UniProtKB/TrEMBL annotation:
<keyword id="KW-1133">Transmembrane helix</keyword>
<keyword id="KW-0472">Membrane</keyword>
<feature type="transmembrane region" description="Helical">
    <location>
        <begin position="142"/>
        <end position="162"/>
    </location>
</feature>
<keyword id="KW-0812">Transmembrane</keyword>
<protein>
    <recommendedName>
        <fullName>Transmembrane protein</fullName>
    </recommendedName>
</protein>
<feature type="transmembrane region" description="Helical">
    <location>
        <begin position="168"/>
        <end position="187"/>
    </location>
</feature>
Length: 352
């Protein structure tokens, strides 16, 4: 059995692309070591080649052993006829296979890990201190658009039937299809205006949750794209129904929600996005999946030095207010101090 020890580990079942269990292991938030194994089988004019990642917080050898074990297991199952991906996608973190976040580790702070993400920003990863990202978007919800289309089409068909003319019904249906999105957008804009704007609507959702759950302690931060909420009164399991309800009540960014469930952690960006502070060049190499080859490290370090210098003049979020119970869990207090310091949330600097 592979050991997977480290400061930020949780017991978890590893799944492949067919959602079948491969092996039970401790899934680290951010492993220190990464490896990839390639295995092949050829028999009776049939050939299969499979690649799988392995990871470890102890050694490169252990990461390689894990990669080979996973690759052999996937090859066996593919050869038996199961539908699996032959190669895992090269992404920093993803929703498939149970592969953990693949980013450069900058520092560890107890259970919390600070990493550098694909585009160069520093990110705080924690297994149990709850963060929620609430991004503001004025886009018309797809559910509203679909509902308007259905209503207009039903009205069009009813009108055609009432008139007793198939041609009239078809024409009315075409008109409904043409104007459906415009009607949905118009209704959505009216809703936003009546609610005091998208920012106020998002804040109202957060405050409404706090009123219904007075035992919760919420810290609210403003971000360039919306709000961030840090929960202080206790720690949480990212996979729990309680967390899912919290995310849904706040209208949390669905990409962030999926990341939390798949990676078994919570996450907060600590430093600006490069393009918001005038850095248009991508962090080298491109794509900059970690670990990078040694020949790319000098260029990466030069880019990082420029980025960190410019980032000093900006804040990733701004503290607004606290709601609910004054109770504070020691783990949450520690993460909050680290978060606020690194985000410059009380500095008054421009957000980026």
């Amino acid at each position: 059995m592979l050991a997977c020890l480290g400061a930020a580990c949780k017991g978890m079942m590893l799944f492949d692309s067919a959602k079948q269990p491969l092996i039970i292991l401790s899934l680290m938030i951010v492993p220190e070591f990464w490896a990839e194994a390639r295995v092949q089988k050829r028999e009776n004019n049939r050939q299969l080649t499979v690649r799988r990642y392995g990871w470890s917080d102890l050694s490169q050898d252990e990461a390689q052993t894990m990669a080979e074990t996973r690759a052999q297991d996937a090859l066996r199952r593919l050869w038996a006829g199961e539908h699996l991906e032959k190669r895992e996608p090269r992404v920093p973190y993803n929703g498939a296979h149970g592969v953990p976040i693949r980013e450069e580790i900058l520092s560890r702070h107890g259970d919390a890990v600070i990493t550098r993400n694909l585009y160069g920003a520093q990110c705080l990863n924690t297994p149990d201190v709850l963060f929620a990202d609430v991004d503001l978007s004025s886009d018309t919800p797809a559910t509203l658009t679909c509902s308007i289309y259905v209503v207009l089409l039903v009205v069009a068909v009813a009108f055609g039937v009432y008139q007793g003319a198939i041609g009239m019904a078809v024409l009315a249906m075409l008109v409904a299809l043409v104007i459906g999105y415009a009607v949905a957008t118009w209704l959505h804009q009216i809703r936003l205006k009546m609610g005091g704007g998208i920012r106020n609507i998002a804040l109202k959702r957060i405050r409404a949750f706090a009123q219904v759950h007075p035992q919760w302690h919420l810290r609210i931060y403003e971000t360039p794209a919306g709000f961030r909420v840090l929960v202080m009164h206790r720690t949480f399991d990212p996979a729990s129904e309680e967390v899912a309800h919290f995310f849904d009540a706040l209208g949390t960014d669905p990409v962030y929600v999926q990341m939390c469930r798949n990676q078994n952690c919570f996450r907060a960006r600590l430093t600006p996005k490069p393009w918001r502070i005038g850095i248009q060049a991508h962090q080298p190499p491109r794509p900059g999946y970690w670990p990078v080859k040694p020949e790319h490290l000098p260029a990466r370090r030069r880019w990082t030095a420029l980025y960190e210098e410019k980032a000093r003049g900006y804040a990733a979020c701004r503290y607004l207010e606290s709601l609910g119970s004054p109770g504070v869990h020691p783990q949450a207090e520690s993460v909050c101090s680290l978060h606020d310091e690194r985000c410059r949330s009380h500095s008054g600097m421009p957000l980026a």
